[in-house]
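[Discussion] Sanity-checking designs against the backbone

I'm trying to build intuition for which residues belong where. Below is a structure token string of 117 positions. I'd appreciate it if someone posts a full sequence so I can compare it with mine line by line.
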């Protein structure tokens, strides 16, 4: 599962982990580590000599809910291409929910969504 999502995401900014959450929880969630988020906020406000943290690249944790039916769909897909497509769609939904999906990635997401209809 982790390999499929890593192929779908193809970005070192995101660390993928599979977690055993409730099936009612979202299939994919994206979070920034609390420490890094706070340091970047302080750097943005110019406080506490934390300017160094503002120049660090963003790093996000992608939590795959191994108990969600949508994730089960990824595993049951017939081809690897189909698995990656479903994983990418799930990941982009998580990005969208965090306000992180923009530009050409947003356009590609909308296009894929229309194809699925």
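Best answer:
Here's mine. Compare freely.
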């Amino acid at each position: 599962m982790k390999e499929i999502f890593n192929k779908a995401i193809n970005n070192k900014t995101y660390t993928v982990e599979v977690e055993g959450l409730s099936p009612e929880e979202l299939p994919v969630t994206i979070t920034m580590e609390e420490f890094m988020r706070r340091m970047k906020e302080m750097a943005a406000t110019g406080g506490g000599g934390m300017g160094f943290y503002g120049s660090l690249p963003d790093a996000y944790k992608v939590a795959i809910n191994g108990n969600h039916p949508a994730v089960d769909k990824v595993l049951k897909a017939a081809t690897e291409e189909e698995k990656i497509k479903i994983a990418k769609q799930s990941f982009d939904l998580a990005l969208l929910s965090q306000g992180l999906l923009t530009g050409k990635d947003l356009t590609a997401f909308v296009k894929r969504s229309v194809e699925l209809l």
